[in-house]
Amino acid sequence: MGTSVKAEEAPLRLPSFDTRANLRQQVAETLRALLITGQMRPGHVYSAPKLAAEFGVSATPVREAMLDLVSEGLVEVVRNKGFRVTQLDDHELDALAELRGLIEVPVMGMVAEQCEGRIATAVEKLRPLAHRITKAAATNDLITYTEADTEFHTRFLALHGNEHVVAVVRDMRHRSRLYGLEALAGAGVLAQMSEEHEQMVDAALRRDGEQMRRLMSQHIGHIRSTWAGRATAAASGAGG
Question: N or C, which terminus of the chain has less Cβ within 10 Å?
Fold first, then answer.
């Protein structure tokens, strides 16, 4: 990582915070969403006091949340300046998406095949969350989309009963920030991805493990195609 420091960009699009709840956790989740949507750019340095002013909260929960993100490898400390967003190249991002596929595709298939009783009840309760994802995609509300999408997938995976799977996938989702999310939204791909969530609910309730595996492969494939396309374009540019 180089030592150059890039200036902060335009004001961030932020949700409101519930000051009665855990502010550190709320701020951390919002920061993750800003990273995932690309509003906080790789290589740029952000100071806790300035972010706190934008959030309308004190600097302490912002600084604590940033340190949480440091431990996750999403940002790094820049002495006397703030926190720099770390950079992953498209090949690294694609490798993380591939790993997600190796884990999520079979596990979601198993959840579908085991979907009866309390599991079926829990799956049906995910339908409103799927609707929330679809609405967020339709309005280009990328922060709500990423937060709801992560909650949907981690709650679905949790029905398999292996908490380590959930922890690993959550970590990979945090690390594989969707820098191309705005492009996916503009191309209409995000809307298609959002609709796949309710299709997953329906496949599980039918106990159709094969269809679930197809849906998850397709779902992650949207992301991989974005990164792979950028990596190919970069390589072509370098070769030209």
Answer: C
Are β-strands 75-78 and 45-46 bridged in parallel, bridged antiparallel, or unpaired? unpaired
Q: What is the pLDDT of residues 159-178, one digit of tens each?
A: 999 999 999 999 888 777 65
pLDDT of residue 123: 99
Residue 6 placed within a domain: no
Residues 79 and 108 in one domain: no
Pair (165, 212) in one structural domain: yes
Count of Cβ atoms closer than 10 Å to residue 72 Cβ: 16
- Residues 153/169, Cβ–Cβ less than 8 Å: yes
Q: Residue 180 domain-assigned?
A: yes
For residue 226, is pLDDT > 60?
Answer: yes
Kind and range of the H or E element at 231? helix 209-239
Quote the tokens at residue 168.
Answer: 């690993």
The tokens for 199 are: 């299709």
Residue 12 one-letter amino acid: L
Beta bridge partners of 78: 82
The residue type of 194 is: S
- The answer on 68 and 41 residing in a single domain is yes
Calpha distance 107→57 (Å, rounded): 40
Cα 185 from Cα 164, distance rounded (Å): 31
Q: Tell whether 173 and 72 lie within a shared domain.
A: no
Q: Token pair of 47, please?
A: 């100071």
CA 207-213-219 angle, to 5 degrees, is 125
What are 11's two structure tokens?
């004001």
Can you give the pTM of this predicted structure? 0.75
Distance CA 157, CA 151 (A): 10
Q: Which pLDDT score is estimated for 124? A: 98
Same-domain check for residues 76 and 168? no
